[in-house]
Amino acid sequence: MSGDLGRIDPGEANPNLDVIREHFYAKLSSCFEADGTPRSEYFEPVACYNCGQDEIASEFVVARFRHVRCALCGMVYVSPRIKAGVLHDSYDEEDYTEHYRLKLIPSLDYRLTVIDQRKYSQIDEYFEHAGSVLDVGCGLGDLLSVFQENGWQCLGIEFNKFAAEFARNQFGLRVIARSIFDFKPDERQFECVMLWGVLEHFTHPQVVLNKAYQLLKPGGLLVLEVPSGDSLLVRYCEFHGGDKVDRIIEGDRHIMLFSERTLTEMVARSGFRRIHLQSNGLDADTLLRLEQETCSPEFVARLQETIDAVMSGDLLRGFWMK
Questions:
Q1: Where are the beta strands (DSSP E) in the chain?
Q2: 147-170: pLDDT as tens digits
Q3: Could you give the CA distance from residue 17 to residue 8 in angstroms, rounded to a whole number?
Q4: What is the pLDDT of residues 251-262, one digit of tens each?
Q5: Among candidates 90, 150, 89, 88, which has minimal Cα distance to 116?
Q6: What is the spatial distance between Cα 43 and Cα 79, in angstroms, rounded to a whole number?
Q7: Beta bridge mates, 225
Q8: CA torsion, points 229, 230, 232, 234, in degrees to nearest 10?
Q9: Among 255, 251, 252, 248, which residue's Cα sits nearest to residue 234?
Q10: In whole angstroms, what is the distance from residue 214 CA to residue 221 CA?
Q11: How far is CA 203 from CA 47, 64, 115, 197, 306, in A?
Q12: How far apart are CA 150 and CA 125, in angstroms?
């Protein structure tokens, strides 16, 4: 199994970050008091999503959101968290489409020709021929379109109306607003189910993983990528805090950040067998940008390669088999 196939250009992959930060910061202002305290009508305390305990080893605040590290299993999660109803309603608001308009559409060509091709190549290694694939939270549909070009039967789930319509019109994909929980196990099963940057948004991630297991055919492949709570970026914020929502640390949307241990435990609990887990990150680029420091691109690349080699990049990408 190959690792990440080359360095990602952070500028090409993540345009308009300052504008996106300001947009979300302003959007959420009504949820906080003037001094930054979360308003009780919008927030609720929660326990660890992996072990269910609420004993805390450490905590840090970034852009008004309190993040805590579970003392028992190491998962990092936001508590108090925006209440489930408020949280899930936001995914189909007109506001949320700005994430697609400002970040993903401007980087679409780069994603299609570089990022999506690399993702597809990794997954393709597991299959002798094209099959059926379900992409949960498919966004604009760019990755799913690569599967379609290679002969796969494709289905996407996307709750944001703007993104779903874009995927249908731009790529001719079948994309529905139906919840993953509305599928019956005997209705349709897939050779591959993908959860790219999705699991960290759900208030009940274990239920999502259980459902993914039901939707896969025997021997099918689960592919998921989640933000890492053990990344250099998170550890830096754990020591120094921060005033900007950036990269994986977005307390309004990324309500949990996984460690290798917690991700492995949760996926295994749903019945999957781990095949491969790797670290991918832009920690070095992100920290240098936040601190307004510069280093040579060559040094940054070597530093990030070292960070990923010790599983401390800001994303965990995993492959599991049913």
A1: 43-44, 56-62, 65-70, 76-78, 81-82, 132-136, 153-157, 175-176, 190-196, 216-227, 256-257, 273-280, 315-321
A2: 999 999 999 999 888 999 999 999
A3: 16
A4: 988 999 999 999
A5: 150
A6: 8
A7: 196, 317
A8: 30
A9: 248
A10: 12
A11: 11, 20, 28, 14, 33
A12: 13
Residues in the chain: 322
Instruction: Indicate the average pLDDT of the chain.
Output: 91
Dist CA 247 CA 240 (whole Å): 16
Other Cβ atoms closer than 10 A to 49: 22
Closest Cα to residue 273, out of 213, 193, 315, 185?
213
First to last CA, the chain: 17
3-state secondary structure of 176: strand
pLDDT score of 244: 73
Residue of 76, 90, 79, 197 whose CA lies nearest to 136: 197
* CA–CA distance, 51 with 73 (Å, rounded to integer): 7
Contacts 24+ apart (CB under 8 A), 152-156: 155/190
Q: What is the dihedral sign for C-alpha 303, 306, 311, 312?
A: negative
The DSSP secondary structure of 295-317, one letter per residue, reads --HHHHHHHHHHHHHTT-SSEEE
pTM (predicted TM-score): 0.93
